[in-house]
Design the sequence.
DNA sequence: GGCTGTTACGCTTCGCGTAATCATG
DNA sequence: CATGATTACGCGAAGCGTAACAGCC
């Protein structure tokens, strides 16, 4: 049994059972992959694939199981490669972070700047995307970890998420806008104006409006606070953005009002994939983001299991 | 990176860093192992071993990490091999059970007999030993699962244990023994006679005696209820054994009295190693042992983790 | 010298790519 | 006939064992 065989197997499955595409992915030729698959099946003594003629169209029941453990083995090999890189590039390793726009721009910026001060050779790669694409990147092992908004969808079992920051929200509008001088910012007051909202934070906001029986004019949903601010300052409506994305000194064409009384804060979470190896640099960086993320916390997060020793009710002998 | 390299690495470590012994274990020659280790280190780019001259005396920090993931990878490969065997020997696969004497003789006997009735080709291998050796066998993956007494030592994180049976205890003595006619079997009454006890169940028994301020004459500690019964029927003392090990009809040279009022029952547990694959036969057998051990229960036992989504206290933004 | 681990060398097998072949719509 | 899997074959690398070599009680 060879890692290469498992790798060919996994890749072929992930390429929708297309051997040619798997070969391209692995920088090899179809015959090479085909042979490995055949050898793997021969060694196991049963078919991994369901075939329609010569084409692969699915996995056998045993194939599914083999796939699961092949992934485990290949993931372990990947982690060993990471350990190797980590050891050789002490402190200079690239940290790959899957994150959203707001986090990249506002939450991570300072941390990365500070980190570079401490480790001038550190490198970063930000995989920017939506909340769900962040989860996908983490799950696929494309990023060392994810920094994203806590999502309401229950987490995959292979991902652990740990909240570490609350982001209160503000409403911003161009100077002189009526909302800025209103006695009190209520839902009713907000609903009078076209709303520019973030796709991610929309959920709770919209629910509140609907619960209050208010119909709202969403002029724009964007991922990017900068875009939202631009539209607001152009007078297209009022934008609901994280407070962290508004600066009194630089956003001279905007004014902000606190919304803490109206909406509960957004929650920033760290996303880690179980069974993944965190490089020294990644661990150091996490500790910088939040002092709670020290080595032991992270370890216990990744190892966390409920102790299955509760006795329940026993049938007597 | 090759599985073979990891295997050589792991084996060398497990053979106390003795390459020759690792070679013998792997049915190979020292040069072959030596070369694999060298190649592995070369590919990783750092030393796995701490050396004293040419001899290996320990692992580097990185070596420890690599060892951990190498074990994961090799375990996955092992599981794939098991899936293969399982698929090819549908229903005829050998089930390897690590267990103690009492469980082998009394708890498993009926279940195995019944299982053979249903699957006449089923094979079993009982690795008999002490409670702690059962755990070792399970942890090392030498057995499909363990059936043993719940031990007071907290379980390894890599093992899940699930109680499924309570074994009440009785005291047995030769016919005519004074304990059999006493009004009531109390600790004081028991302490009058030499005690023959099981090493495993001793713990609680002895604690009770000591708590009551009684000094006890332990004439014998044995693992084996048959041995204990023999000594008791020879008049050497009274034996405390699981009720299941005494039969009124066949143990004609002995009489028993219930001890349920005195000692809490022993608890039989199933021991499973996390990250291990259970064969179809093993799953079927577990379901036979206890209806609670169906496929879903076992799966959830092995997957059990605490959901790490509790928000704790958050620092505000 | 007996215990280690390592190099040298020849043999076999493995894994790959190129090119030709086979199946299927 | 176009697409996609497979077989045929030759080359280079990998993995092994035997034998010889090198450090350390």
Sequence:
């Amino acid at each position: 049994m060879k890692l290469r065989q498992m790798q060919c197997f996994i890749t072929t499955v992930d390429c929708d059972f297309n051997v040619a595409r798997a070969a391209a992915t692995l920088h090899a030729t179809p015959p090479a992959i085909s042979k490995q698959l055949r050898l793997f099946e021969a060694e196991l003594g049963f078919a991994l694939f369901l075939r329609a003629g010569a084409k692969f169209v699915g996995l056998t029941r045993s194939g599914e199981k083999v796939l699961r453990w092949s992934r485990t083995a290949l993931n372990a090999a990947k982690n060993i490669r990471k350990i190797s890189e980590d050891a050789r590039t002490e402190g200079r390793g690239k940290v790959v972070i899957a994150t959203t726009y707001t986090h990249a721009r506002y939450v991570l910026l300072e941390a990365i700047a500070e980190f570079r001060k401490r480790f001038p050779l550190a490198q970063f790669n930000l995989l920017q995307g939506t909340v769900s694409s962040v989860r996908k990147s983490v799950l696929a092992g494309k990023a060392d970890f994810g920094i994203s908004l806590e999502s309401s969808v229950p987490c995959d079992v292979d991902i652990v998420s740990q909240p570490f920051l609350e982001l209160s929200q503000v409403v911003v509008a161009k100077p002189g806008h009526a909302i800025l001088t209103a006695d009190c910012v209520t839902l009713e007051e907000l609903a009078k104006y076209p709303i520019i909202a973030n796709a991610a934070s929309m959920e709770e906001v919209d629910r509140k409006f609907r619960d209050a029986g208010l119909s709202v004019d969403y002029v724009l949903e964007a991922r990017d606070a900068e875009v939202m601010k631009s539209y607001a300052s152009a007078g297209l409506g009022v934008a609901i953005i994280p407070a962290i994305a508004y600066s009194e000194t630089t956003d001279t064409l905007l004014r902000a009002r606190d919304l803490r009384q109206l909406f509960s804060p957004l929650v920033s979470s760290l996303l880690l994939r179980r069974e993944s190896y965190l490089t020294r640099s990644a661990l150091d960086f996490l500790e910088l983001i939040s002092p709670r993320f020290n080595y032991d916390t992270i370890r216990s997060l990744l190892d966390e299991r409920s102790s299955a020793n509760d006795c329940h009710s026993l049938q007597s002998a």
Notes: The CA atoms of residues 111 and 288 of chain A lie 7 Å apart.
